[in-house]
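Reopening this one. Same input as before:
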Amino acid sequence: MPVLETLPATGLTWEALCDDPRYAFLHDLPFKIETNRWGQLVMSPHYQRHSSRQTRIALLLQQLLPEGTALVECAVQTDDGVKVADTAWYTAERWAEVADTYATPIAPEICVEVYSQSNTQGEFETKRALYLAAGAEEVWVCDRNGRLTFFDADGPRPQSKRVPDFPTQID
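Same output, byte for byte:
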């Protein structure tokens, strides 16, 4: 689904918001910015440990799956607005389709959410369903203790199907 909805708070589309110099400061804020289904901006602060886990997961994904692309802060267009996966991994084929987009119209094959102090279990359940509906094969959740839980469309898994050697603990 293309990102064409107008954000009521600004009157801009997601792409226009990203390009508008009046909102350049948003790129430097120490938290994630997403939208909800009504186009409202949602900001999520996080501790430095959160960023460290994002980076660690991305580096391990790139090491274990070098044929694809791992990244942090991946904006994904969902049925409930633009959500930002903390860490993501794309196959080379899918990456070629989305590399030059602001909010990808199809989710990465792997989307990872890392708990922040402001997150709730319900939020992660919702995001998991949204990422899977947008095309993700797997959604991982890293809890406040660094433990990873792996999910696919059938529910929780003991390990990642795509990366079975990925550790279940980060730190």
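So the earlier flakiness isn't reproducible anymore. For the record, The two ends are 36 Å apart (CA to CA).
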